Every structure is written in C-alpha cells, then in structure tokens.
Give the backbone structure.
Amino acid sequence: MANKPKVVIIGGGFGGLQAAKALANGPVEVALIDRKNHHTFQPLLYQVATAVLSPGEIAQPIRRILHKYKNVEVVLGEAVGFDLEKNLVHLHDGSEIPFDYLIVAAGARHSYFGHDEWEQDAPGLKTIEDAVEIRRRVLLAFELAEREAYLTGVRKHLNFVVIGGGATGVEVAGAIAGIAREALARDFNLIDTRRALVQLFEGGDRILNAFSPDLSAKAKKDLEDLGVEVYLNSFVTEVEPDRVKVNDKWIAYDVAVWATGVAASPLGKQLGVETDRAGRVPVNNDLTIPGRENVFVIGDMASLKQADGKPVPGVAPAAMQMADNAAANILRDLKKEPRRDFEYNDKGSMATIGRNKAIVEIGRWKFNGFFAWCVWLFVHLISLIGFRNRLYVVSEWFWAYLTRERSARLITGDAAEMRETPKMIGTTKPAALPEPALKRKKTAR
C-alpha cells in the first residue's frame, strides 16, 4: 500500500464520492477529506426545509458509503489550502496530507453578490443545517401568528418570500404553499394558514430558465395555481430583517429564503490560478488546472465549455461524469495510456412544482403534470444512497400523498430563542376575540 500512488479527494459530495468509487480497488491509495461526516442528497434538501423529510432520510455517513473499499480512507477535516510545489493539502488544524494526484470537488455555496450580511435574514439552501434553519423559521412563523392571535386577537396573514426562480426557488415556493394550504390548514384554531402569501421574485424574464420557454411557462402557471405569486424581472436589491427591496419597492415578509446565485468553494482561489466571477476554476479539457497535470478540479468548482460553446452545468450528473473522467485519466496515467478529454452527456433536467406537478426535459422529450411528477419521484428515489434511506423516503412520500401531512414538523430551539419576543403565554390574559371567531368551528375551513 505504501508504494501505491496516493490520490487525495477534497469533498464528499456527488463528485467526490463518485471519484472515490471509481478509484476503489484500483492500484492507488485514496484519501477523501470532508469537513462533515455525511453525504447530503441536495436535491431533496427543500423537503427537509418544508418538513416532508427528516435530515437523516437524505443523508448517509461517508464512511458507511465507502466502508467496503479497503484502499479508501475517509478523513474528517477541512482543507484550507495547498502547496502544489510539494504536493501537500493543508488542513484547518495545521495538519498536512501529501498526494500524488489531487481531485478538488469542494462544491459551491449560495452567493449574495457581495452582501454576505443578507444571509442572516434570508438563508440559502445548500446544507442540512440550512434546511433545518429554514424549517424552523417557516414553522415558527405560523406558531407566532397563532400566539399573537391568542394574546391580542389580531390575526396576522403571513408572507413568505422566495428570492430566485431556479429549481430550488420553485420547489421551495411550491412546498411552502402546500404546507400553508394543506398540511397546516386544520391544525391552527385562530389563524387561517391558507391565507398565507407566498411570493417568488425572479430577476429574469422567466422562471426555470434552464428549461425550454414552454415548460417554464407551464411551471409558472402550476405555481400560480398553487397560490404562489410569481414576479418576473424583479431584482432584490436590499435585504433587511423584516423586508426586502424589489426593484424600487419594499416588500414586508415573515420568512425569506435565498435561492439565487452560486459561488464556488473559496478553495478554488487557493490553487494559484485565475477564477471566474463565481469563483470557478477554468480547467483544461482533461479537467486539470493549467500547469498542473496531477491536479483535477470537478463539479461546481470547475469552469469548462462544451463543444457547442455552452458551459457544463453545475448539476450532480455533470459532477459525477467529471469524477469518472478524472479517475479514469489517473488510472490511464498509471498504465502509460493517453488521457481522454471530458465530454458531458446531458441526461436531461427536471423540477417539481408541487403535488402532482413537475416538468421534465430530456432532449426533445418534454412533458409536465402527473406523469412528469412520477418520473421525478422515481429518479430521485433511486438516486438516494442506501436502501434504508429509500425505504424511509418512499414511506414518507406515500404518507404525505395520502394524508397531505408533514411528519417532520419539529422546531429546534425554544421560546427564549424566538425571533420575536412578545409576552409569553401565562404572563397576561388573552385578549377578547371577536365574536365570530369564538363561535367559528375548527372544521369550518
């Protein structure tokens, strides 16, 4: 083992895991470094954020995923820099890990376009922690509105703002509308959750611009049928604790979710090459960085154009294909064979809007509605890692479909940590409620 070339992989996302698997049982020693001990299935994060699934149902320990590969070691740590002259990876605690080949697949984060302070008020959705925080804010908003109605008699109509009309923004907006109009409609006595407003702001002239214009239009109509207000050509230019500025107008909100803008991991800037505005690293056709034949960059961190001039998209299938190509080129080096350039195989795109509503585009094939929704469910289910995860997820989906319930409606923290701090129940008498509200039956809605 000591005489085998050492391949160090940074990141346990789709690209990093696929690279480790592609090199498993090969004539190399592999070390995969990640600052978290688990792999997250990011396409379903929005379902954690909207209380459909629990975090453990879309995550799996990296060590468990790779446990059967004896030449692969998992290292819990955060890479913070490199010494490419000495072939070393620097970790946050000062440790160093040597390599013969390096594959950097550290992924991306949401970008606030130079306004990182906005994240506190409008969190993005890239990690389990992000999803749990958004879930806390969404569910807490309804609880606080109910409490305000109990204490003061004032029935507040909630407003949820989603910034960005890509797949994540559309899925989050549709899911929040579903929570308000279905899952919670009978659980609150004093407020009508169905009157909650969900607004989606997109800076472009259509949502889901990665899809064809006709599918984008159908998705917009599906969202509006769910009760989401979609605003196009609407740029968010300011974010404050209780309001956002859209173009020149201020919009009040109770919960805001950031779903636009992507910035590659800052590790890209530690590789000693120029990066683009989003922090992505321009790579050669074999996915190496200029001047370093033993350093590969893949996934969301890589900037590479296809033969038709279009950039390779930052999606999971592209990252996994890049991982296979990089691993194969390393193995070709060891066999003294020529490397092969990366060629992206577009397997199509899909997005779900809500219950029974989705769009799918695979080459010339385009479809929407219930069948597209079933395809979306099937593809995401089989893509989950681990039989146990698939079993849990399909059971939760089946239960949610039959009952319209959400089984993961937990709010982390306690009353002392609430964003608003009106008087706690028990310290004051409830305000007298209007007569019609006192007589209204719970099932009237």
